[in-house]
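Thread: quick sanity check before group meeting

JM: Hey all, I'm pulling together slides for Thursday and realized we never actually wrote out the predicted structure for the chain we discussed last week. Dropping the sequence here so it's in one place. If anyone has concerns about the input, flag it before I start.
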Amino acid sequence: MRLQLTYMILLKNIILAKAAREPSYPTCSRYDYEERLLERVLRNELSIENMLKEIRETYVKVESALNLMHEDRHKLSAAKEEMEAEIKSRLHVGLNNMSDSLAFMKHVHEEMGTKLNDAINISMANIADAITKMTENSSKTGLQLKKDIDILKGTL
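JM (edit): ok, ran it. Output follows.
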């Protein structure tokens, strides 16, 4: 019986040692580490491919936006140059108009001054003639009155 008990204990120890040494699920398989590493590498590769795809899509969007910005910048630059040219042109035309207007105003001022001087001279001549005629008329009238007074005195 003792021998049987010893065999039983030995068998029990062998079974326990066998069960404790290696579990039955695949995590303890021989290539488990390599399989998990390969799965991780594949997952990383897929995620990197997805990231690369997203980066390329983003790059295309950024590049198209950058091209649009360059086009808009060139359009703005052209519009700015056009506006500057138009402003310079209008300023030049405005200055020419002001210069012409100033020259015209000087001419009109000189002409008006000449006309005013002529009108004053003519008026002075007319006034002088009128005074001369009035003086002659008053002299004639005075002489006529004297004659009339002498005639009236003589008749009286």
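AS: nice. Helices lie at 2-21, 32-155. The chain has one domain: 39-155.
JM: adding both to the slides.
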